[in-house]
Amino acid sequence: MEANNFSEKESLELIIKMINSTKDSMDVGRWNQFVVWGTFTVLLGLAILGLMAYTGNPEWNWLWFLMFVFWYSQKLIADRKPQPVVTYNSKAISSVWKVLGFLFALTPITLTILTFLGYDLISMTLMMPLSLIYMGIGVSFSGIILHEPFVAYIPIVCMISPIVMFNIILVNHGVTLGWYFIYLLTVFVMMVIPGIILHYKTINRK
Known about the structure:
Strand 1 (about 25-30) and strand 2 form a beta hairpin. The mean pLDDT is about 75. The protein has helices at about 10-25, 35-55, 65-80, 90-115, 125-145, 150-160, 160-170, 175-205, and strands spanning about 25-30, 30. The longest helix is centred in the middle third of the chain and has 29 residues, at about 90-115. Helix 6 runs antiparallel to helix 8. It is mostly helical. It has a two-stranded antiparallel sheet. It has 8 helices and 2 strands, in the order H-E-E-H-H-H-H-H-H-H. The protein has one domain.
């Protein structure tokens, strides 16, 4: 029995179909997952920033653990919905984010242990620039897999922010409220804007 041979045109059409199917599966309700996660992160960050500015208490930073509550709620919602078509591209993107998700979980656990051991300079503030690096890698790899140059390169440009944040820690040995604005602005540019690009390209294609 002869193996089915795809022509160059048929192979290209199949690849495009898989990429488009993957983009479709990334939409949750009306918005792309990057928009959902980016918006939640920015809103949570603004709430924490407001509480710290009002009370002067940095312990409000522990509210960042609500990110894991939000992740679990999103997982429960996704499990109740019809599962999207699984393609090679979607499996690749999912694998990248699973590895990064492990890093997201491991980092605050490690930093929390170090904080309780008395390492004041190695505190939860490190989670913010580290999380920007994790998010940037995830979004950039997703853009590469989806053949979306803007989605791939926007996070690379945004890597300037964690470099600045690490420098602030090393030089000033602490952070100010402006630190949080850098973080939240970077999250918006790094996640929400690429998500909007993907979302509108998806709905305009349909």
